[in-house]
């Protein structure tokens, strides 16, 4: 039930000043969620304008878009927006303006899926190394091939070009996606990256790709344009990316001049929520303990998403000094007006809870956290309201049909 009494001390309403001089008007951000609202040829649509206009009207400070892919040949799912040239500038400008016209910052999240692309969607998938998925996900994802040095350098250039187009379109900043098992995260992980060349072999060489992507983005957008990154605290996977490696990567990014770091964790194979330790439950957010370690090491503004349940919990996280920006995601899919309550010191009337289908292999993978909430986002984008009580099993059926049809239509659009 929603809290009826506002907080006496409320920090969410304070502005956040980024290192490059940009200002976010308050400490509440919508983190990225899968939207899949592009055409089957991966062009942005008016549905994104409708969706972000609704979210911006909530009074939130920052909106981070869902996956914007930098290569049309490398999609994570049907309906991804791809930005690789200026052909869609009018719609991109309308999308950005839906937020900025209301005083809300909007950053495009730039991504490359690497191996984490649904089977049949792309002609082929690449990764740092040709490491297959585990048995649970192998039926849904192909084993990738190892990327060549030339392909790696091309992807670096693509991130920079996409970022420059976003700036020209009026976006307030960009976020580089280096979490949740996508390509940049794969390069950091010794499980996925088993190379022995300049792009792998040691923790320092594994993070060379991430730093090169950031450097190219910065080169193409300039020093006064905000560039953030979303990075895993750990992969929660045997032989994967560890907290110690994450801290080293974060220190290197801070030294390079990154403007904002969002801390997350996990992959498609492990789920993205941190194991529920007592300290996590008490502090609400999944990654606050790791944020404490990062704050002790760097002064870059930090954002944490995941696990927040109340305005009080958000306020306490900010008061601790460990983080500077509170991220909410799934709550915005079931209550797009939630920031109005939170910024006034009250809780949302809705509560985020795990989505279950009753099918154990599906439920333990955490895919419904993408599929179910994605369907709610689609409703908002149509100008309708979400259905917080919708059946997880029914949503799974609809999502599988949509993804199957979308994969077929995407391949047809490329033919």
Report what the structure shows.
With 415 residues, this protein is an alpha/beta fold. The chain has a single domain, classed as TIM Barrel (Alpha-Beta Barrel), CATH 3.20.20.70. The protein has helices at residues 46-56, 89-100, 149-169, 183-188, 203-206, 208-221, 243-256, 278-283, 288-297, 311-319, 330-334, 338-343, 360-365, 368-381, 392-414, and strands at 16-17, 23-24, 28-30, 62-69, 81-82, 105-111, 126-127, 145-146, 173-178, 227-232, 260-264, 302-305, 325-328. Strands 3-4-6-9-10-11-12-13 form an 8-stranded parallel barrel, surrounded by 7 helices. Strands 1-2 form a two-stranded antiparallel sheet. Strands 7-8 form a two-stranded parallel sheet. Strand 3, helix 1 and strand 4 (62-69) form a beta-alpha-beta unit. It is globular and about 55 Å long. It starts with 15 loop residues before the first strand and ends with a helix. The model has no long low-confidence stretch (mean pLDDT 91).
Helix/strand layout:
Blueprint: E1 16-17, E2 23-24, E3 28-30, H1 46-56, E4 62-69, E5 81-82, H2 89-100, E6 105-111, E7 126-127, E8 145-146, H3 149-169, E9 173-178, H4 183-188, H5 203-206, H6 208-221, E10 227-232, H7 243-256, E11 260-264, H8 278-283, H9 288-297, E12 302-305, H10 311-319, E13 325-328, H11 330-334, H12 338-343, H13 360-365, H14 368-381, H15 392-414
Parallel strand pairs: 3-4, 3-13, 4-5, 4-6, 6-9, 7-8, 9-10, 10-11, 11-12, 12-13
Antiparallel strand pairs: 1-2
Helix pairs in contact: 1-2, 1-14, 2-3, 3-6, 7-9, 14-15
């Amino acid at each position: 039930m929603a809290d009826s009494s506002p907080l006496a001390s409320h920090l969410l309403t304070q502005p956040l000043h980024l290192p490059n001089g940009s200002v976010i008007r308050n400490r509440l951000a919508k983190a990225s969620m899968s939207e899949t609202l592009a055409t089957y040829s991966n062009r942005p649509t008016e549905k994104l304008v409708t969706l972000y206009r609704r979210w911006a009207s909530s009074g939130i400070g920052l909106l981070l878009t869902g996956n914007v892919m930098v290569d049309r040949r490398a999609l994570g799912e049907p309906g991804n927006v791809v930005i690789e040239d200026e052909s869609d500038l009018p719609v991109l400008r309308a999308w950005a303006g839906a937020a900025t016209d209301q005083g809300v910052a909007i950053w495009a999240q730039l991504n490359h899926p690497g191996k984490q692309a649904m089977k049949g969607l792309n002609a082929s998938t690449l990764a740092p190394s040709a490491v297959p998925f585990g048995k649970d996900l192998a039926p849904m994802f192909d084993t990738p091939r190892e990327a060549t040095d030339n392909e790696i350098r091309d992807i670096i250039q693509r991130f920079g070009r996409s970022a420059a187009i976003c700036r020209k379109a009026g976006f307030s900043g960009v976020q580089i996606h280096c979490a949740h098992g996508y390509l940049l995260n794969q390069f950091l992980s010794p499980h996925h990256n088993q190379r022995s060349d300049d792009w792998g072999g040691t923790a320092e060489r594994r993070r060379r790709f991430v730093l090169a992507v950031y450097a190219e983005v910065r080169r193409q957008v300039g020093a006064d344009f905000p560039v953030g990154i979303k990075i895993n605290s750990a992969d929660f996977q045997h032989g994967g990316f560890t907290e110690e490696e994450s801290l080293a990567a974060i220190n290197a990014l801070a030294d390079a001049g990154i403007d904002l770091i969002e801390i997350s964790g996990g992959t498609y194979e492990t789920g993205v929520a941190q194991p529920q330790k007592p300290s996590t439950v008490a502090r609400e957010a999944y990654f606050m303990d790791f944020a404490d370690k990062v704050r002790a090491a760097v002064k870059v503004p930090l954002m944490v998403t995941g696990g927040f349940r109340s305005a009080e919990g958000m306020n306490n996280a900010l008061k601790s000094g460990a983080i500077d920006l509170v991220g909410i995601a799934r709550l915005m899919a079931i209550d797009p007006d939630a920031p109005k309550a939170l910024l006034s010191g009250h809780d949302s009337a809705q509560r985020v809870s795990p989505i279950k289908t009753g099918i154990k292999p599906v439920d333990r993978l955490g895919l419904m956290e993408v599929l179910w909430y994605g369907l709610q986002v689609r409703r908002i984008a149509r100008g309708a309201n979400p259905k917080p009580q919708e059946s997880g099993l029914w949503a799974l059926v609809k999502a599988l049909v949509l993804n199957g049809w979308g994969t077929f239509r995407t391949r047809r659009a490329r033919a």
